[in-house]
Amino acid sequence: MEERPLVSIHCLTFNQALYIRHCLDGFVLQKTNFPFEAIVHDDASTDGTAEIIQEYAEKYPNIIKPILEKENQYTKIGFSGIEQLMAEKELGKYIAICEGDDYWTDSHKLQKQVDFLESHPDYGLHYTQAYQLNQQTGEKTIGWAKQSDFEHAILTDSPIITLCACYRKELLEDYETVVQPKKDWLMSDYPKWLYIAQKSNIQFDPAITGVYRQLTESASHSNDVEKQIRFSLNAHSIRTYFARKFNVQHLLPAIHKNEFNDLCKIAVRSNQNLSSTLWKFARKNRIINTKYLMKILFFSTSFGRKYHREKYQ
User: Fold this and answer.
1) Fewer CB within 10 A of the terminal residue: the chain, N end or C end?
2) Mind listing the pLDDT tens digit for each residue in 227-238?
3) Can you tell me the distance from the alpha carbon of 228 to that of 223, in angstroms, rounded to the nearest whole number?
4) DSSP secondary structure string, 3-16?
């Protein structure tokens, strides 16, 4: 009888034939003293991704467990629906995540993370550092992960690089109930980190265990300014929701201020007048005062944006 896996790897793929082998190799090369599985969900790719996943599933049937959709599910049920579908298949006590265009480089990643979580029951999540690879230029830099807690994570960009995380599945037993009203979120990882950080301690290990591939166009990166604004405002929606959900409304002024500054950064990087967006945001969140009005006027001018360009690049 096959032993129940201790870790389930959660992998989402869509049209990533160029990268998926690298990703799957990172799974099958893991060296552990426990069984693990990789639930790989392909959302009806049209570029051969599914065929590569099937190839690995036949070669490593005890590890690679594919879900190969015939019709795209994201357009029907969104991220949250797919997450729920995968959660029903995942048998592990712990969940590790790596999307199909990212990959692991440390063959002992899972073993080290499980060792920590098994010996520290008051910690719900362990995460490491990764390289960030600019796919267009080939430049590789150290990622943005850092030690954090709930308050720090809700006031900043996510301090956790998704491919580096391993967490206790039991902590998310009532997660869907808590986030049920928020089906329009564009990211599935950041809300999870906030939720887990509110319920337990989280631990950062600066060791580099993988590579985050930054593509020109993806869910979190785009050259389209409207997409950048939408993604940024979506992150703000997540922060304000959790601040209210967990009764830390005193953080809302700082959350609003940080988002306003993030929108200013988009204006500078794109060299576009986003005064209308800034005004609507300030009015909606009731942060209109002389200081914010002056900022809106300043960033509406090419001189103002140029003045801050070096700072915001």
Assistant:
1) N
2) 999 999 999 999
3) 8
4) PPPSEEEEEEESS-
